[in-house]
Amino acid sequence: MARYDDLPYRTCVGIMLINPDGLVFIGRRASGPEHVDQTHVWQMPQGGVDGGEDTWAAAKRELYEETNARSVEKLGEVPEWLTYDIPRTVAGRAWKGRFRGQKQKWYALRFTGKDSEINVASPAGHKPEFIDWRWEPMKNLPELIVPFKRPVYERVVQEFTKFAKK
Predict the structure, then answer these.
(1) Per-residue pLDDT in tens (0 to 9) along the chain, 166 residues
(2) What span, in angstroms and rounded, lies between the C-alpha atoms of 107 and 82?
(3) Taking Cα atoms as reference points, which of 87, 107, 91 lies closest to residue 99?
(4) I want to staple 26 with a disulfide (CB 3.0 to 4.6 A). Which of 42, 108, 133, 166 is the partner?
(5) In the chain, where does DSSP find H-type helix?
(6) CB 132, CB 42: distance < 8 Å
(7) How far apart are CA 166 and CA 56, in angstroms?
(8) Does residue 59 sit in helix, strand or coil?
(9) Contact 103, 12 (CB under 8 A)
(10) What is the model's pLDDT at position 129?
(11) According to the model, what pLDDT value does residue 151 have?
(12) Could you count the other beta carbons within 10 Å of the beta carbon of residue 98?
């Protein structure tokens, strides 16, 4: 097994889905080795980029696979890749021990559909990632995510706050 410090980052996208009221979709994770308590189990949709896949296409695909939402319009993106390391204590269990964390390209999308379009229990062609969801004020997101992802969420909130305002 490779040393933790030598492991690469998994290429991933993150999606901030913002409703017309300026609130953000967060889902309650079904499970994962990084769960540390019952407070920090919420996150925005995210997922891996397939080989050769464009990150914008991956973001739309991941959003649909995790939430069933397709009624969206692109608002913006964080210009650079954001990275986080997973704790060494769970590195061997996450992604079969192949990655030390993720490098993520983040997109802000406006949700233009009705809440009934969102279905985390039976998402399109995917096993459920979330067991519940809600709309949350953007400023609250960093406190709801697992602590090791908090700096990424703080940066994403900073970058996309302008889209929460009507």
Answers:
(1) 568 778 888 999 999 999 999 999 999 987 665 555 666 789 999 999 999 999 999 999 999 999 999 999 999 999 999 999 988 777 666 666 778 889 999 999 999 999 999 999 887 767 888 999 999 999 999 999 988 999 999 999 999 999 987 5
(2) 12
(3) 91
(4) 42
(5) 55-67, 88-91, 141-144, 150-160
(6) no
(7) 24
(8) helix
(9) yes
(10) 85
(11) 96
(12) 13
Size (the chain), residues: 166
| Phi and psi at residue 63, to the nearest 5° | -60, -45
Contact in structure between 20 and 110 (CB atoms under 8 Å): yes
Residue 164 structure tokens: 């929460």
Contact residues for 17 (Cβ-Cβ < 8 A; gap 6+): 24, 25, 44, 45, 63, 67, 69, 72, 109, 111
Q: Which residues contact 25 (CB under 8 A, 6 or more apart)?
A: 16, 17, 18, 19, 44, 45, 67, 69, 111, 118, 133, 134, 135, 136
| Position 160, amino acid | F
For the record, the structure tokens of 54 come out as 């464009």
